[in-house]
Write the structure tokens for this entry.
Amino acid sequence: MEFGPYLMLATLEGAVTAAVLALTAVGLSLVFGVMRVVNVAHGEFFMLGAVLAWWAAGLVGGHPALGFGLAILVVPILVGLIAVAADVTILKRIDYDPERTIVATIGILYIIQQLTLMTYGPEARPVEAPFNTRLALPWFEFADGRPQIYWPWGLSTTSYKLGVIGAAAAVLVGVWALMTHTRIGLLMRATQLDREMALAFGIPVERVYALVFGLGAGLAALAAVLIVPIQQAHYLMGGDPLLLSFIVVIIGGLGSLPGTVVAAILIGVSDGIISVFFSPTLAKILATLLVALVLVFRPQGLFGARRA
Amino acid sequence: MTKTKKPPLQPTRRDALKTLALGAGGAAAATSLPLWARYASAQSSEPIRVGFQVHRTGIGAAYGRWYDRTTMAAAKLINENGGINGRPVEIVAEDDGTDPKRGAEVVEKFATQHNCDIGFGTLFSHVVIGSAPRAGELKLPYFVVSEGHHVASGMLNRYTLQPGITDVKSQVQAMAPFVASNLGKKVTMIFPDFAFGHDHRDYFTAAIEAQGGEVLEHIAIPPTETSFTKYFPKIPRDTEVIYHVMVGPAVLTFVKELGEFFGPQRPEMFGFIDSLEAVDIGSPGLEFLEGTYFWEGNPRYAQADQSPYDAFFRERVGVDANGASVSDPKDVSTYAHMFGCWETLHVVKAGMEAAGYQGPSDRAKLIEAVEAMTDMAHSNAHPQGAKVFNGKTHQVFGHQYITKVTDGKLLLVHTTSIEDTLYPDEVDYTTQPL
Amino acid sequence: MSNTKKTLVLHLGLLVVLFALQFVLPAYHHGNLARIMVLAAYAVGYNILFGYTGLLSLGHALFFAAGMYGMGLMINQFGAAPFPALIAGLLAGALVSLALGFLALRTEGVAFMIVTLMFAQAGYLTVLYFGTYTRGDEGFVIQQAERVLWCIDLSDPTNRYFAAFLIFGVSLLLTLRLVQTPFGRVLIAIRENEERARMLGYDVFAHKLAAVVLSGTISAMAGAGYGLLFGYVGASFASVQYSIFPLLWVLLGGAGTVLGPFVGTLFMFYLIDLSSGLTSAYMLIAGVVLVLLTLFAPQGLVGELRNRLWKELP
């Protein structure tokens, strides 16, 4: 494939990855930003989203859109409730101590993985997309001195992939509106800025924490429901989303929603675009080092304010 | 985990007592046996303990589940037919988490804690390579079912054998003549960027060049990758055949995206069934596979000319004519690989009986007995087909199958000869001390 | 007895017990303990950075793997003898940790976690990328004949146990000594209050860099030892899982205690091993135990011991 179309394809594919990553990372960013804990089990909430989507989609017959619709409505709420339960039974009791939370969430990770293995099994299972049409894409070339449209071999995407990008963008706008224009958003931001002060002003910090933990897990689950018609549900699929969204949150700058989105796009598209020039694994190595160096030279992240 | 299962030995002890009672008249028979005979019979009713290293958790779990079912079915069958040397087989299963470190620990546990006679059943190559040194040091016969080239390459040791499944080098090179003469000579290979994929890259590239073909491009996909389309533009436009192989949970995504990339104008495609092992060919998005070819270690769908041995094997393991579990048609088996557990356990039985195996002190004799094996006939013990064992390289060789997706099923179009799969020896393990 | 003497007696006591155990343990546990001692040395190395300097790294698998591959490739590719190969492993670990420390220490807190994580991930992919030499994920075997150090066959159980004992003993005594040196005290001061340490005129960056290199080199020693003693070098040891393990072991045992890393490693090993004997769902048991421990032993096992019984435990 020629250079131009290749770059376009790599960008499109990266955009899908970035869309899903942004949702997962915003979930983690809320938890990390407001509660100041590293939730190692965040990826498992993502995995639960995908697995439960498979389960929900199997409940209804008929057009695949029905099952998928049910999944996208119910699954994030279900996963959110599971997370709230974990918060009030475990995290609250250990006082959100950063180090103990790491061990506790590793424990939760083991528990969720093993329960999924015992009930859902080790297979990777697909969910049928509600709509999925292959869209061939055009490109331009200069022939006889003027641009002409042609259809390069292999340059295509699917309607569903475009749908994922659209849906993720809509949800992100929703989260932004929630954080900036609602009372509950205000409470979250107040808690994030200064927990002690928030307590002093009578904000029910514990309830805010439970809500944030549930919301973060729900967003991860939503991202998984969106991706599961493209990738399959598998009980070990939570590892990558955890690492990548963790990276995205820090690169973007802690607590910065636009930063998180920009970082997700950077990470989503970088290895695809670098692989235009290098072999895939080398591209991944270079992309990883590149992103790490961003942090080395801008430790507060792209959009973070340097703290004194 | 430890799970021991003692399927009833037939004829059972009760049957034997009944026979004695009828023939010689009751209790007198039992007490009239000389002391040494009573001792010997007590000794020989001790089960043969087979340490089964199984991928219950981790990335290999989908394979492990079917390796488990096949192994249990084989052990049950062997016990129904009188066990090994008249002793029942007991499967002692331990999960290795598909991790080489835990794998080595499990092998130690078999040898020093569970008092197993042998270790058996490992699939993933890195677990085999991580565990084999310990098996060799502990002098525990270690029968792997991995299809890796690690055994025949000489990397391992005298106590590690692979008598029940062919290795990737022989499989790959046997495909080249068919690909070159039926599908095309300009090949692009897509494979995972780790050792298993590199074996495909190296051996197939050499084999296709020997057939007058060439590989236009090698596309190595990083492991843990979950989205693949971005790498496909590297496929040259004049490719005649795509050769693809992928493993891990993302295989279905890989194949689907390959289909979406090409749309209506795809080149010929040849894949290793590993790309779709344990995945339903009827999954949404796989329609484009119609008319493409696959290597299969053992054809998943029961073929028109199915052998009675294959029918017997399916029935005993509980697999239907479509290669799925009889209890759940959505539960697709790892049919191209799991026969290896069945055949290996039968080789162990034959080896132990040839060696007059009594206990761990006869482990070296067992190794020598298996090394002495050559031809294995197509039979209930070897339902995948006839095989030839090479005692020097500790590796078995056999027929390979090429199937074509026709009306959503994999239909057999070519069976390679065993000669197609042979290559010069790279090691002689029999020169190593026991 | 003074406190220093008490702690010295305690740690020498542990070493004496470990040394004596080899004569009484059954074969299986004998082998396990050898493994645990090498892994505990890894945890001890990790603890220098995490427990004493207060830097949480998520990339220590890079150092463990640097030692393992530095040693393994010397033997496998250049036919080196075990001793120079071990030295090569240590050097590889020291160099890699120096380079990583130099870059990553520009960041702190969570950014430090992420930078170390990403460098380790790049290292893991590099092992796969050079599959021609490393055999990627499959890894390679170090043959029995290549593991004979000065006529001592390291694949022999007794020799292996003794070698593992040495590796652990050296790292343990080194840490014990470290806490008592001025250098070690500055590290603890940095952990407690970095600004104050700087005000007092200490070169914080240089101290932290030295801690990274020391921690990385001990981790590399454990990695090289593990490969040499158990005969296998593979990419799974470079994966992110092996960065999280020492963190888990140290937290379980008790961060900032000298005995914690060993206790945590021992506990986690037998937690998995014993629960897997009870049920196939052993990860469930492991998960529940971890959660319970955070609820009821917040300072880790040795940390709790120190809080409740023995206040002077280092």
Remarks:
- Chain C has 14 helices and four strands.
